[in-house]
Amino acid sequence: MTILRAIIQNYLETGEPVGSRTISKYTDLNLSSATIRNEMSDLEEMGYIVQPHTSAGRIPSDKGYRLYVDMLMQDKQMEMDSLKLELNAKSEKLDSILKEAARVVAANTNYASMITAPRYRKRSIKFLQLTQVDDASLLAVVILEGNIVKNNIIHVDEVLTAETLLKLNLMLNTFLQGLDIEEINASVMQKLRTESGAYASLISDIIDVIATSLEGEEVEAYTSGSTNIFKYPELNDSQKASNLLTALEEKKQLTELMYQEGDSERGIQVYIGDESPLEATKDCSVVTATYHIEEGVYGKIGIIGPRRMDYQKVVGTLKNLMSELDQIFQKGK
Amino acid sequence: MTILRAIIQNYLETGEPVGSRTISKYTDLNLSSATIRNEMSDLEEMGYIVQPHTSAGRIPSDKGYRLYVDMLMQDKQMEMDSLKLELNAKSEKLDSILKEAARVVAANTNYASMITAPRYRKRSIKFLQLTQVDDASLLAVVILEGNIVKNNIIHVDEVLTAETLLKLNLMLNTFLQGLDIEEINASVMQKLRTESGAYASLISDIIDVIATSLEGEEVEAYTSGSTNIFKYPELNDSQKASNLLTALEEKKQLTELMYQEGDSERGIQVYIGDESPLEATKDCSVVTATYHIEEGVYGKIGIIGPRRMDYQKVVGTLKNLMSELDQIFQKGK
DNA sequence: TGTTAGCACTCGGCCATGCTGAGTGCTAAT
DNA sequence: ATTAGCACTCAGCATGGCCGAGTGCTAACA
Fold this sequence. Notes:
Strand order of the largest sheet of chain A: 7-3-10-9-8
Order of helices and strands of chain A: HHHEEHHEEEEHHHEHHEEEH
Structural class of chain A: alpha+beta
Oligomer: homodimer
Distance between the termini of chain A: 48 Å
Radius of gyration of chain A: 26 Å
């Protein structure tokens, strides 16, 4: 078993098929290449390693990698080299934190990274305000739990008096505060409308705009370091690179992968090669992790790299980042 | 001269060096390949075309392209196939308009595109508002000319009364409305501070946050279709592709290119190969255009593709988009 | 029974070689 | 001024031979 480990580790470093002689010299256990060959033969039969062609060294199969990362995962402790997010402490704009996180991870690992913003739908409205900007436009600001700010300009036909505005604001807040977007259903709307009297249609407009602005963009996601994939010859084939980069640009598929069933847990998920349901990442490994902003509100971060990824480092980095992020968001509350 | 045109046009289509026989058959003017050869020889001497190696066809040199696009540009009229931005008319968030514009252009031309948001520094403040969100945080909303909304959470130690808030808001608006970020100098600050009395330090904080939030991110930029470059074999070399994509990801350099001296005009700028000061685009052509939001406030959009770009189409598309954008922003006023 | 040495075998990668076809330049004829 | 013809060049491709890394197997050994 230590031989499998040795093979994998060597392959991770070099990226080239590893032969029996290399192992026999490289490791401490004094075994001749012939012995190694026998062992390798066994390992191949068990499906942990593969020969790209007769008379080349062996490379780990997906199954081999899987065994390896499983072993890694239950290792007592990973060294965590600290990484500090360099953020201007004062302003806490969610998107810049996320962008920075993606950037740091990509720079640290030399792989591509992608981070998704938490879903909005589950967040309750904390505060809501309309302001008259000029004759034709209202500004609607919505603050969600977690201090996420969304804003929108709404065009109106008539100028509202300060008094009306005050009344509308009060009403909107009374009715909507504490609700999340899914809870604003027909009955709430109905109440609001009857309550608002003459301004019913305006209210409808407003709710509409708010709803689309919250719901609209699906999950936002940021990528970084996507050009890192050129550093790995096995992905440097233009066909593969193109597919991968397209996936990273589109983001949609990857987002879906991350929000797969059953992993809303804190756990770190590893998809090796074909284990991923995504066509584009068949030649890659994807490692995803979850960060939490509060109960039920979480986002994902993923690292995409070659199969022969430095899993140890990646998992370490992610764990690290998770605690870093959790801390930031804790403070923000 | 019509021969040069023929050569270039053929090369634009095929991407392969074009030989004398091809031209002789392809065009209407009935000339044998030998004649073409003589002409080509002349053209080469004049520096408009180049042989990649002895006994291959000719390809246009940068100088040749330059001549070609110059001819194009003074052509009476380009056919503009209309392209409609699909935008939800109600919400007019600048960034989604820009993203959509980049997307449409990339999809229409099959090249990579990048669009920059207009610079903020020149925009004057239209409206400004502080709101208490919870015990520890204030929300600062700034609306700039052109209905660009920026917001920031500011942490405070004490809870402000509604009255104080009202006073602060009034004061901030009186002093800052109509100014752009560069006009908020020491003397204005000084006045504000003395005026505000006990809240001087809070005011400083607020101005600080506003300033950094406006100034902070430099110029925002969005890219789209960067993976289109894989469609052109001459850029499909991993070295070049990597450089280009990195440039597109970083955006910074490209932004600088776009904001080069002397082209704040409406004009469309074309950089062919080495004409560009950017190392990364030495193998490409870059076409940039300017859109206007109002006097002195403008952004740029650029298309990056291979030297053998369909200049006609690109320029047409850009012109089209420009008028489209101008219209949208006109309406928004 | 596990380990080792030795040997024949396999096969990708590399290099030299040769061929082909597209394309040129030049010259002589129209 | 245009054209036909011809010799020449050269990238691209296929072929074939060689090398070396690596394997599998067998026989010897502890």
